[in-house]
Design goal:
By secondary structure, this protein is mainly alpha-helical. The longest helix has 18 residues. It starts with a helix and ends with a helix.
């Protein structure tokens, strides 16, 4: 059971990786 804050952190991490890879 993930908390909202954990999902937000995960999304921010994934978005950051996309920006670096772009």
């Amino acid at each position: 059971h993930e908390r909202i804050i954990d999902l937000v952190k995960k999304n921010a991490y994934l978005i950051g990786n996309r920006r670096l890879a772009a």
